[in-house]
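Lesson 9: reading folded outputs for more than one chain in a single document. The general rule is that every protein is listed as its sequence immediately followed by its structure tokens, and records are never interleaved. Here is the first one.
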Amino acid sequence: MSAATPGAAIGDRISLQAVVTDSFDRKRLDQVAASLWPEYSRSRLADWIRAGKLQVNGCAVKPNFRLSVGDRLALETVIEPHDSSPGPEAMALEVLHVDDELMVINKPPGLVVHPGSGNLDGTLVNGLLFLEPGLASLPRAGLIHRLDKDTSGCLVIARTSLSHLRLVEALKRREIHRHYQAIVWGHMIAGGQVNAALGRHPVDRRRQVVRGDGRPAITHYRVKRHLAGATLLDVKLETGRTHQIRVHMQHIGFPLVGDLAYGRRGSPSGLDEQQRQAWRSFGRQALHARQIELKNPVSGELISVSAPLPDDMQQLIEVLDGPA
């Protein structure tokens, strides 16, 4: 069996061969290909099979073709941009960490991560592709998780196919630890845990709600500092559902300051004019991904990266750091 090149870039030619052994007898071609060459995504391997670039005994077959012992597999292709990759755009991005396998970006608030309806350009993915064009060969330009538009902080990007595969699996196994800071309404007495399943809102499909038939979601939090009408929290995700921290904090009666979807309007009573103005003018959810801890997917080295609190949250804390 020939070895693949984990860091294959756009334009690189791939030439791989394998012979089916007993362990793969009567199994589907797409499943066997994913086992033999895990550095490439299943969707990409299936596309190569359909295009006749991954053949069995010199013949083009379908992804569900059942293999027999002794069948010869041959993959001949050229790495092309991934279908989901948009165009590159020059963008000022702060790189907090970079090595051969991954990088960590400090995402600023207000920046959409992935292109979508109404955001076809000007996204983080566009900026990443300008920073490192080779990411176009990876799904979602190497991003393995995401942050909401108005959430700031640490985001991990894989730099090779193999690293992308391993980091996605590590995220599923909860081996990547994500720590946040949040400013919430009210004076929280003590930390704790929220264990409440999340699912889509039955009417507004853009929102999430706590629901018994949802996906398991666990959030840990502890009080860091009391502020005027608010509390600064350290938050750790055990799971990573859409809007998880925002919905869980709302669920226990302490919604995030500035959260237009899950928060409250106005400002608490008992504040001075400067504090009321700071509270009213904060235009996003007060949430920041301050630290991420993970292992390098190839070397196993422990990596811990922190992103400084953005100016708007720091200024809000300074103004509210007084009696309510």
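And here is the second record, again sequence then tokens.
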Amino acid sequence: MGWHAQLKLDYRRDGEHTLAHDQHEGPLRVLQRLYPEGPGVCHHVVLHPPGGVVGGDELHLQATLTEGSHALITTPGATRFYRSEGQRALQSVRLHVHRGARLEWLPMEALAYSGCLAHSQVHMDLAPGAEMMGWDVLALGLPAAQQPFVQGRFSQQIELRGAWLEKGVIAATDDTLLHSAVGLAGQGVLATLWFAAGQALGQRETLLDVARQVVGGDALARCAGVTSPQPSVVVLRVLAQRVEPAMALLVRVRAAWRQVAWQLADHRPRIWST
């Protein structure tokens, strides 16, 4: 039957504090809320104790941020989508951010093992005056372990309601997509970072400029690009051979955006360095 798990996170502002409440069913939980930046920003680490996702598993996460709250949600390590015997695995994330709230959705990478059948979706609903940063990093196979992505299928969807929708399907048999110059050109890591708002971004050009400055000095500059597909969204896309350099670039751009948009320092969750 597979694991069916749900996690609901609710954040609200109380004076100078962002308070959090969580409800869970099944093996999807959060660690104790942390405030390494002070009481205004709540850091949460989402855990999936089984350690991987297989065919038939369904993981559903919902986060709601009310006015004035600020949450940073991450994971302790990669999400592993293992080989399936025929059933699809699903990971669904729904994010609701109210006016004046800020969210940072920053999970570690997803690893698509050869033979997996999986779908990952992130749906964002931002009210006018709400802002968020998020990223999505996918690694195909385990090249360092000589386990390439030669079987299976991984589909993705990232949606900002009413403004931005990206959908993709990666099949291990699609040689044109995986290996040609008009596709991924043999790059097994796909990374996307975005800054989104519930209205047109007043700092749109600044966000584009600072991201392009960071990208221009990076070793992955030839495989990265920053665009604004819609006035309320700025997007960085990166292709790489390995996760680490792609993630490092996303971390640097995220830090630059945090400074110019929110006047907040580059505070990285401690668990990223453990």
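What the second record shows: The CA atoms of residues 55 and 87 lie 4 Å apart.
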